Amino acid sequence: MSKQRPPRRSWAEPWKVKVVEPVRVTSRAQREAALVEAGFNTFLLRSEDVYIDLLTDSGTSAMSDWQWAGMMLGDEAYAGSRNFYHLEEAVREHYGYRHMVPTHQGRGAENLLSRMLIREGDFVPGNMYFTTTRLHQELAGGTFVDVVIPEAHDPAIEHPFKGNVDIGALERLVQDVGADRIPYVSLAATVNMAGGQPVSMANARAVRAFADRHKIRIMLDATRAVENAYFIQQREPGYANRSVAEILKEFCGYTDGCTMSGKKDSLVNIGGWLALNDADLYQEASNLVVVYEGLHTYGGMAGRDMEAMARGIRESVDDDHIRARVGQVEYLGHLLDDWRVPIVKPIGGHAVYLDARRFYPQIPQDEYPAQTLAAELYLDSGVRAMERGIVSAGRDKETGEHHYPKLELVRLTIPRRVYTQAHMDVTAESVAAVFDQRERARGLRMVHEPRYLRFFQARFER
Q1: CATH class held by domain 65-316
Q2: Cβ(209)–Cβ(171) under 8 Å?
Q3: Cβ count within 10 A of residue 362
Q4: Which residue in 11, 114, 234, 376 has the fewest CB atoms around it within 10 Å?
Q5: What is the pLDDT of residues 257-313, one digit of tens each?
Q6: What is the distance between the alpha carbons of residues 346 and 18, in angstroms, rounded to a whole number?
Q7: Closest Cα partner for 249 from 224, 232, 229?
Q8: Half-sphere exposure of 391 (CA within 13 A, CB side)
């Protein structure tokens, strides 16, 4: 009897490989030595000691031949580079904002925005914190207030839009502190610290209505807004037949401006921008960027990098591209879920998040279970991931005590257009092997703690 045909057709990436970068496969003894030297912090490992690098999708994607061709057309004039105008045009066309100031990367834009809008004693509501965003808000004198829906803090709940803002929480904040102490709502799409979870279009409209009612701005973290648009297309009624490009522009249309790290969705290795609709704010940003980044027509970026980003923006909104990009993340997530490995659900857009609490219930949070899990994964296979738990959460700026987040996660972040499905298989098998040995794991103690953003440079020991 002939074998029955499979019920579905497989898909493949909408690109083919032209150039390869060799990587080194190390022994367990070599990885143990590298891990001790790095203080059990995967950020401090040398790249040459890493086999599959899932630390971040920031600046680690592969550029296309069209982007590399654009790099050869860099206009490196100090002022008025033609590549700036190409980038400005791409931002207006696909994100819809009137004005754009380039920055060296996303946190440069966060710095400018915080300095312009936040005053001492202000409160900045947002749908879950992000590390650099909250720090810039605090350095400017503000206090971050989490207004994400409660479902975002439960890794097991299958809510399609766990990044949504809790409108009731926003209303309560206005009642408590007054609208005049809220410079803007900080809206992230998708929500990184919740597992790459999206915001629905309906929720964006509701936040817009709230903001209009109280005369408060909305500032978007658009770093992965293209991925957010894809989830709206796939999950929200009424959008299945709309293109990702159309959805992205509508979504951004409910906000007043955005910060952007072009190192994610825009498929480049460096660069970002601050976009604004208000002409007066744009003038202030254009002046301030000269102090911290560079002239307003390059903002810390080379002309060639602005050209690559302009082209990357256009490639990023292609439906085939984003379907394959998120599809690879889902492939890894479904493998782990099928093997009963505890992950955040639903699977996010840029990463699969391992639930370290369920991996290591025997390790208390102040012995850093997620940091431990990231270290054990590297030790097993050379796969580098990153902690997103108590270490990333940092300390309360007033009390100095640890923030104790409900989510204690390890992020397996997939660079765009870099790895094959075979790399995802190797990663999944390594995670499963570590999970099988979970009862043997013991925690870490921190032996060096930087003042700011400690997860980047903190050191630990067993």
Answers
A1: alpha beta
A2: no
A3: 13
A4: 11
A5: 999 999 999 999 999 999 999 999 999 999 999 999 999 999 999 999 999 999 999
A6: 34
A7: 229
A8: 33
The DSSP string of 198-239 is ---HHHHHHHHHHHHHHT-EEEEE-TTHHHHHHHHHHHSTT-
pLDDT of 13-68, one tens digit each?
A: 899 999 999 999 999 999 999 999 999 999 999 999 999 999 999 999 999 999 99
- Which listed residue (123, 130, 360, 460) is catalytic? 130
Tell me which residue of 29, 83, 36, 120 sits closest to 273, measured CA to CA: 83
Q: Among residues 311, 310, 285, which one has the least CA distance to residue 296?
A: 285
Active site residue 161: no
The CATH code of domain 28-50+319-461 reads: 3.90.1150.10
Q: Where do the domains of the chain lie?
A: 28-50+319-461, 65-316
264 in catalytic set? yes
Is-catalytic flag, 455? Answer: yes
What gap in Å lies between CA 354 and CA 349, rounded to an integer? 14
Stated pTM of the model: 0.95
Is 133 annotated in the active site? no
